[in-house]
Amino acid sequence: MSTTHEMFTAEELEDFAEGLKEWPGTAWETDDYELAVSPFVGFYFLYDTSRYLDTSLLMVDIHEAFERLSGHPYKVATHPDSERPHLYGSKRLPNLREFAKKRKPGDSFRFKFTDEPNHSSSPATAGYFCRVRDYMNDRAPEHGLKSYSYIQFYYRWQWWRDNRDAWRRFVLDIIDRLRPQQVYSGFAMANPLEFGTRSEVSVWERSLATRFYGLDIDDSFGMSMGIEDALPKGIRSPTWAFFLSDDWREKLSLSRDEVRNALRHPRIIIHERVTGLWIELGEQPDLYPVENGVPELPMLLNKLLRPIRNDNLDLVGTGQWDGDPNERFTKIDARRWLGRFDEDSDWPGQEERFIAPPPASAAAPPPAAPVQEEQTFPPPPLRKAPIAPAPRTPGGQACPQAGWWFTPAKADSLRYFERGEIMPKVEGSAWGDTIWQWSSDQSASRY
What we know:
InterPro entries: TsiV. Residues 343-403 are annotated as: Disordered. This is Type VI immunity family protein. It comes from Luteimonas salinilitoris. By secondary structure, the protein is of the alpha+beta class. The protein folds into 2 domains: 10-361, no CATH class; 390-447, no CATH class. Helix content is 25%, strand content 18%. The protein has 13 helices and 17 strands. The chain has helices at 10-22, 52-69, 96-102, 134-137, 157-162, 164-178, 198-208, 220-223, 246-251, 256-262, 296-305, 331-338, 360-363; strands at 27-29, 34-45, 76-78, 85-87, 109-114, 126-131, 149-154, 182-189, 215-216, 241-245, 268-273, 276-281, 373-374, 392-394, 403-406, 415-417, 435-438. The strands form 2 sheets. Strands 1, 2, 3, 4, 5, 6, 7, 8, 9, 10, 11, 12 and 13 form a 13-stranded mixed β-sheet that branches. The chain has a 4-stranded antiparallel β-sheet with strand order 14-17-15-16, with no helix packed on it.
């Protein structure tokens, strides 16, 4: 790839943008590579360094679960030590669990999987995993911010539409087991396996960001670092689904009930988890073309989250240099873009901004329509349920309500208990005491 000439013409940009309006999973193609917009979910987390191995093994569990869920699509994997790519299944690739056991607390643990053989092209399905070194995870505030570890997934838009319920169960299960600080899901440019292509991706992001309010930017490597212009300092503006952890919620000085009340809307869905709230702005993500107006639901959520937003977030990861004719985000424009859902924003231009009217189905909801909240743990005020099973039950005690339960103390622990059946303890678990939790999915199948 070269950055000595313009990457695309104005006509090519318009063609790509029009294609995204028809199908928000479209790629721009050259003779050498293609870059695409993709649905994604990214998890940013801290971990207990005394249990660093358990975190590494959990990451492998999550990788294998996603691989099964997505239909075993991978063609390339990276070596967890050298980070060099190899054909999937190559003898040069070690067993991840055995490799993880050999790593020390001061070693990072990184591995990637993708269905795209061309390392310069955006993947259609991929999983990128990184556990940072212990000192980066535990860095004291007086010496700087802690760095996040991260897990990032890309997947096909049609696949998500066909598997959205299984995908949601998968995401909620990861949240319960990984206990992340921040999680984002929506649409973003899919970063290729090759690290250097981030420069090209950032050019497309800058141009498309003026055409779509709902295009997120999720540079997991650059945004996870413990520096002032990264996510450990503050969140970015969610476009669709977002995990508000209790740690960040407390920085808002709000209770869970106050968050729910602030987001009381017939199209917002909230899932209660052990360590926070999973919030979905409508039934599915949307790119929100600028000509349709500033979308209502992202404005509502971002108004709530504005006090904890990092307006200095680095969106590029690589800088602009002399002689490069391609436009990338500057610090000034990055701040404007991060605040695009604010009422006083001027992004992408004052003359182009107007508030989008609500969908016809949501413009006049029935007077008694309840807020769409799916609760796993204690329900919100005013919602009465005829049966309220105990949300958490210690191992060794009788099951209080027949149904499906799981415990973070054991991988793939989802199982059915009859009422009165003794719920077992998991001996020797790195998670400590065994606590069985009521599953939000009470079907007989799991992803």
